[in-house]
Amino acid sequence: MASGAGRGDDEFALIARLFAPLSEGDLGLNLKDDVGFVPGTDKTSCVTSDMIVAGVHFLPDDPADLIARKLVRVNISDIAAKGARATGVLLSAAFSASRGPDWIETFAHGLANDLTYYGVPLIGGDTVRTPGPDSFSLTAFGQVTGRHLVKRQGAVPGDGLYVTGTIGDAGLGLKLLRDELGTVPLGRRQPLVGRYHLPEPRHLFGAGLATVASASLDVSDGLIADAGHLAEASAVGLDISFDRVPLSTSAARLVKGDPSLHQLLLGMGDDFEILFTAPANSASRLIELSGDTDTPVTRIGEVVEDACHTVRVLDSAGAPLEVSQPGYTHF
């Protein structure tokens, strides 16, 4: 890790240079997607692994049960964005030395709550103490629900670009928890902080994703950054209409009071919505799936030909906007 960082690699360049060569391309998708295939399942089962670390993905004083539930949900989100249904998880938990039995028990109760809600059993893992910060990893297995896995690769020029739900709420929630936005009324504050603590993975919508989407991923690093991952994998460009990006009522009110926040929302992480592309002939099925799963879906742009795989954010006049912070990266 240190040698890669020293050479100036970002997170994704580091993976491509050091770890992708270790991947069996057909099963691991060259480490260019959110999941890989489980060996021996004829590509009917997939697997993903995400970890969360205190001070990076959650605040050290966040409630233990909410930390556990967030861990479950970020992994469910990866599975859902591939058009699959979660079937089981492995937990690796490194509890800091300061965590007593009551804290760990509360963590376990939160884990049980969401595993029960999503109908997913815990099938193994590891539990240790660490002198460092709390670190938790979940490996989630999924069953492909449609004819195929929905990869990042597959978008073609002429497809529409869509996103579920709203963008930027979790990032604003984190700013509120860090007291970076001043005084905000409680009724406006709670929904945003809630989205940071407990994302809502679109697992029901994801189960039908293969019937509408040509390419897909979940929004974890930020809308623009993740759009860039999709564009790169599909070898296309993406044009996003700035005014079409959906905001929640709470986020829109904050933006109205401070317009400088608006562009920042496009690079804020932890939304865990599904960003996907779909051809024009899928419109009626998309409306049906949105209604059946009670999932808001907004068309925010289109797929275009672009040899450089550029993501452009366009204003109401069609002019490109400069987005200074497209998303989060660990390196």
Considering the chains and any ligands shown, give keywords for the structure.
331 residues; alpha+beta; 60s Ribosomal Protein L30, Chain: A; Phosphoribosyl-aminoimidazole Synthetase, Chain A, domain 2; 3 domains; seven-stranded mixed beta sheet; five-stranded mixed beta sheet; disordered N terminus
Strand content: 15-25%
Write down the overall geometry. globular
- The CATH superfamily of the largest domain appears as PurM-like C-terminal domain
State the helicity in percent bands. 25-40%
Instruction: Give the overall average pLDDT.
Output: 93
Largest sheet: 7 strands, mixed
**Are there runs of 5+ residues with pLDDT below 50, and where?**
1-8
Enumerate the strands of the largest sheet in spatial order, edge to edge or round the barrel.
7-9-6-10-8-11-12
Second-tier CATH architecture of the largest domain: Alpha-Beta Complex
The radius of gyration is: 19 Å
The count of domains is 3
Count of discrete alpha- or pi-helical segments spanning 4 or more residues: 12
- Secondary structure tally: strands: 12
Looking at the structure, the CATH topology of the largest domain is Phosphoribosyl-aminoimidazole Synthetase, Chain A, domain 2
